[in-house]
């Protein structure tokens, strides 16, 4: 299966879910035009409260649609955009990418993966028990965060559903994703 975008979302206000739109515009070094999390420095309210001058490593949130079937098996009905992602993907194992992997989205947009989304209490406010469902453990007991990945915009462009995704591996050894 070819990796592709299945849906795109944005919200001009800070909240949990984002509304589906026909297309989003990625702005180099900023994020999704019109989205509350767009900016060079952190825009997530909890991070702004700690240090508003930190660079924004969470400009774009990507989430794999395959997670929704897994959540449904645990009794959770979740639809694209409801977990706050900007881009819902299909056919790419986002969680196994190396830190620094780049993705070309559509004709010209390019993002660099910075790390994992760390599930927070807002997930349970959206749907009780959902936070536990997006967390798992490896055979070694290591915590697995399944709530998607975060990225920064390297090259702007328009992204819409059905756009192809090209993976450009990072140079050097594989560096597992960590929460950002």
UniProtKB/TrEMBL annotation:
Domain MOSC: 19-168
One Pfam family linked to the record: MOSC
Signal peptide interval: none
Coiled-coil region list: none
PROSITE patterns linked: MOSC
Family annotation (InterPro entries): MoCF_Sase_C, MOSC_domain, Pyrv_Knase-like_insert_dom_sf
Protein name: MOSC domain-containing protein YiiM
């Amino acid at each position: 299966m070819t990796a592709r975008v299945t849906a795109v979302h944005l919200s001009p206000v800070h909240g949990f879910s984002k509304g589906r739109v026909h297309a989003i515009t990625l702005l180099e070094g900023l994020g999704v035009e019109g989205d509350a999390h767009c900016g060079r420095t952190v825009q997530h309210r909890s991070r702004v409260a700690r240090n508003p001058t930190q660079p924004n490593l969470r400009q774009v949130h990507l989430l794999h649609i395959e997670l929704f079937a897994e959540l449904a098996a645990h009794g959770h009905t979740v639809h694209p955009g409801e977990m706050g992602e900007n881009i819902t993907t299909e056919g790419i194992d986002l969680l196994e990418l190396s830190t620094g992997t780049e993705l070309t989205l559509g004709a010209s947009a390019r993002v660099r993966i910075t790390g994992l989304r760390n599930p927070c209490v807002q997930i349970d406010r959206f749907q009780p028990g959902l936070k536990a469902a997006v967390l798992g453990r490896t055979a070694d007991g290591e915590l697995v965060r399944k709530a998607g990945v975060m990225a920064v915009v390297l090259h702007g462009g328009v992204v819409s559903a059905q756009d192809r995704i090209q993976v450009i591996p990072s140079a050097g050894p594989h560096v597992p994703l960590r929460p950002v």
